[in-house]
Fold this sequence. Notes:
Blueprint: E1 14-15, E2 24-25, E3 35-38, H1 44-55, E4 59-64, H2 68-80, E5 85-89, H3 95-109, E6 114-117, H4 132-160, E7 163-168, H5 172-175, H6 181-201, E8 206-213, H7 226-235, H8 244-254, E9 266-269
Parallel strand pairs: 3-4, 3-6, 4-5, 6-7, 7-8, 8-9
Antiparallel strand pairs: 1-2
Helix pairs in contact: 1-2, 1-8, 3-4, 4-6
Amino acid sequence: MQGLFPERAVHNDFRCKGKNSKLKRRTEMGLEGKVALVTGGSLGIGTAISLDLAHNGADVALTFRRHEEEAKAIVDKIKTMGRRAQAYKIDISDFEAVQKLVNSVMDEFGRLDILVNNAGMNWDGVVWKMTEEQWDTVINVDLKGAFNFIRAVTPVFKEQESGKIVNVTSINALRGKFGQANYAAAKAGIIGLSKTVAREMGKFKVNVNAVAPGLIETEMIKNMPEEYKEQSISETVFKSLGKPEDVAYLVTFLCSDKALHITGEVIKVDGGQYI
């Protein structure tokens, strides 16, 4: 029996007609011609988000801090899709530098429609041993960094009366995590920040949401002790880790025309780890 929305059965893909024709793509998500800015786009979840947004029609500006070669490779890959792309090196905790970067993106791409705050770090330690440097560094990167970009893009979104902001938080922001007082606090702050900005920007037709991954197969977990990794896997109902693409698909949806009436939400991507 044919469904009510048969067009939804068509996956986003690339079609090529003729030997010299350009790649064409299905544009279910309504991202064709849009420009996305993805922080921390050179590795892991940020890479998956950048590639999926491009696959669905968006041009992509991505930021990196250390992994320049990886960032350049992602830019090259996006360009093979027929999309524009650029990588920017930045310390996202630097308020003035972030403002300059957003201005550069506007100059380079001519517009900005989507912000994905994905960049982050962890520097773990139990609270009675955590140093001031550990606390300040994680808060400044994970929470202040997200604020810096939101502060820089909201005047643009406000003026054009449209925009999408997706902030990557963590299930540990919702439940806490032994040894991660700084990280959990920063990511919990992102949830409060997301909900507040959703209220403030709603009248300008700007959607603001947060995505809370569980343990995902990224560079960040490579050095995790095996026993802790196995414990996290055992917490999921699927008994497996998530992939960066699992997060990316949700982010793309929230950035699309299909999520016009969704704002202020925190959506977990954790295989049931939080249950």
